[in-house]
């Protein structure tokens, strides 16, 4: 059976003193393996090592397999774009039909929605028919119907598949093996994500119980050692000749006799034995991963005077699309889900909405942040005063990322950049938060933390998302976007 093996892999970036990947041993077989872990733990670095975009400092890869990589970002045109669109191969035709890819998309990549770009990325990765297919967050930007089609397309792949995703449904449906990356540890479990998650939770609880038993045993031995030492100290004091008259031979004789029959040597042996047991326990001590408090909180009062925000009734032509927009109000406490299929004009409408608002009244996080923008955001944060930086990194920690590792990055991952931007802008205490695909690139712990925080936020939230669990848990108002040809209708529900 064909397999991909990673043996004793070490890697660190030139600017970092710490290894991102250290003494890593993994094996992948045919079928899908889910690769999960917090942002910044090294998932994308590992994928780049497998595809040979990065070279390990030490270690080997067995089998010179052909790999195809579909990245999480949709900013750049995929390699082999022209080959795919101009191919007469039956595989290309089937993929175009199945994922509803239009031939003219080849000529207008820059005007495609991120969801449309994502479909092209996945199609090209499958078209190349590689030995190893790696897909990084494939459901980012995809609507519900397209997600179902994507699952069937990926399910048809017969090689070695590696899936990085925060989409719990896709991980459970597609993967028969799960690899969980954490800082300093890696766990491989032959099951889908939900089962693996439960098993890891059970393991963690077991180790906590064992650690508790060890700590109690260690504390008991320490007390025993202390008692024996104190007893030994008192015995030595009683057997001292210091306070006996040098001419009192009877008293001296009694002390010498007591020393001969003294239990000092037995007490000394007891101390040595107990100390040996303590050292053995410490040698076998269970080291638990440090756990940080999760979740972010909004501690400041918002300016209620700015509410309601109003979008007046209008007919607008934007980017060749004809929008019919009713009068829309945004009240304090509204959690508005902008709902619609890929390509329906959601982001175009959102950009129009932003143009009607004052910048000081809202926080906006776009669905994609370019590498250049990421660098600038990172530079700004690194230059901030230490106190302000500390507040930002506190929020980042509560969103499951390690600030120390992040600071050593050349460019943080897309998920980490989103966390940094959210943490930085929250200090401005905006009354309105606008998010375009907020769960994209985020790990599961972070998604849950942000979802809970936005539920408790006293201001208003507007968001575009295809994460059904997130949308259902958060929204109390829906703005539906429907497109027919070039005509787009916005409806408040």
Strand segment count: 19
The side-by-side strand order for the widest beta sheet comes to 11-12-19-18-14-17-16-15
Shape designation = globular
State the major sheet: 8 strands, mixed
End-to-end Cα distance: 54 Å
Report low-confidence residues grouped into runs of 5 or more: none
- How many helical elements? 16
| Mean pLDDT score | 82
Computed Rg: 31 Å
Structural class: alpha/beta
How much of the sequence lies in strands comes to 15-25%
Question: Fraction of residues in helices?
Answer: 40-55%
Q: What is the topological layout?
A:
Blueprint: E1 3-11, E2 21-29, E3 31-37, H1 43-50, E4 58-62, E5 67-70, H2 81-85, H3 90-98, H4 114-127, E6 132-136, H5 144-155, E7 160-164, H6 168-174, E8 177-182, E9 185-189, H7 193-238, H8 249-260, H9 264-283, E10 309-311, E11 314-318, E12 321-325, E13 328-330, E14 335-339, H10 346-355, E15 362-365, H11 371-383, H12 386-398, H13 403-407, H14 414-426, E16 432-436, H15 444-456, E17 460-464, H16 468-474, E18 477-484, E19 487-492
Parallel strand pairs: 3-7, 3-8, 5-6, 6-7, 12-19, 14-17, 14-18, 15-16, 16-17
Antiparallel strand pairs: 1-2, 1-4, 8-9, 10-13, 11-12, 18-19
Helix pairs in contact: 3-4, 7-9, 11-14, 12-14
Compact overview of the structure:
It contains 16 helices and 19 strands.
Verbal overview:
- Helix content is 42%, strand content 21%.
- With 493 residues, it is of the alpha/beta class.
- The strands form four sheets. The chain has an eight-stranded mixed beta sheet, with helices on both faces.
- Helix 5 (144-155) links the parallel strand 6 (132-136) and strand 7 (160-164).
- Helix 3 packs antiparallel against helix 4 and helix 12 packs across helix 14.
- The model has no long low-confidence stretch (mean pLDDT 82).
